[in-house]
Write a structure and sequence with these properties.
Blueprint (H helix, E strand, L loop, with lengths): L3 E7 L6 H14 L7 E7 L6 H7 L3 E4 L5 H11 L4 E4 L4 E2 L4 H9 L4 E5 L2 E3 L4 H17 L6 E4 H7 L10 H14 L4 E4 L5 E3 L2 H6 L1 H17 L1 H13 L4
Parallel strand pairs: 1-2, 1-4, 2-3, 6-9, 7-10
Antiparallel strand pairs: 4-8, 5-10, 6-8
Helix pairs in contact: 6-7, 9-10
């Protein structure tokens, strides 16, 4: 049985998936628990391209998730995963070679209920630098982060996984649910230090750095006053746009 299951939600990711899987192979080879102790689950979220074919050719366990929802894809992958530890990463990312070792170290004490590696972007610009300038203090104060998110399987089951009614921010909601569970046990959120994932800037590349950044900043305000506008924005940029 694998120790860690890495779950990759994917919709039409034939362009980005190979680079992620290359980085996963390297991280598995560096894992002190052995490469075979890590399984890769690709949750194919109704792709119409070669995503599933590529995943199978690389030895991944492919599960088809028909419901078009990032949260549903994450949950669908987790349900078939066999590892004691579940880790989640987006398909347009790449792992640090020491990712799996850092996950093990972070969970080893039993004091951490959920953790994340943090992330950086594949390129930098003034707009992206400003985003990190704002984002980093918020994540430190709120004790949240992104990148590879990981937890124990039993705890994922206890909170019911990701909330599938959410089109976006399902990852933030999941961390909050896990932290709430952890508080009752004296457990906390933990960062796997020194192993930030690299995520693509494809949305910024297509829509413009400042324009896309401002839409991200304004979306929480839309949620308060125009929730339907947020749903349209989410569908346009995350479910219909394959940039």
């Amino acid at each position: 049985m694998p120790r860690i299951s890495l779950i990759i939600p994917a919709f039409n990711e034939e362009r980005y998936l190979p680079a992620l899987l290359d980085s996963v192979d390297i991280a598995r080879q560096h894992f002190l628990g052995g490469a075979d102790a890590v399984e890769i689950v690709v949750a194919d979220n109704a792709s119409t391209d070669r995503t599933a074919e590529i995943a199978r050719s690389r030895g991944c366990h492919v599960v088809h998730v028909a419901k078009r929802s990032i949260a549903a894809a994450r949950n669908g992958g987790a349900k078939v995963a066999r590892g004691e530890v579940l880790a989640f990463i987006d398909a347009d990312s790449q792992l640090h070679p020491q990712t799996f070792n850092a996950i093990e170290r972070t969970l080893a004490s039993g004091k951490v209920i959920v953790g994340a590696t943090g992330l950086t972007t594949s390129r930098m610009s003034p707009a992206l630098a400003f985003m990190f300038f704002v984002w980093i203090p918020i994540t430190k104060i709120a004790r949240l982060d992104a990148g590879v998110v990981f937890c124990r399987r039993e705890d994922w089951e206890t909170v019911g996984g990701y909330r599938e009614e959410l089109l976006v921010a399902e990852d933030v909601r999941f961390l909050l649910d896990m932290k709430r569970l952890g508080r009752a046990r004296g457990q906390r959120f933990g960062r796997a230090k020194g192993v930030k994932a690299i995520t693509s800037t494809r949305k910024f590349d297509k829509h413009g750095d400042w324009r896309f950044l401002m839409s991200m900043i304004l979306s929480p305000l839309w949620w308060l006053f125009r929730p339907q506008a947020v749903e349209r924005w989410a569908r346009k940029h995350w479910y219909e746009d394959r940039a």
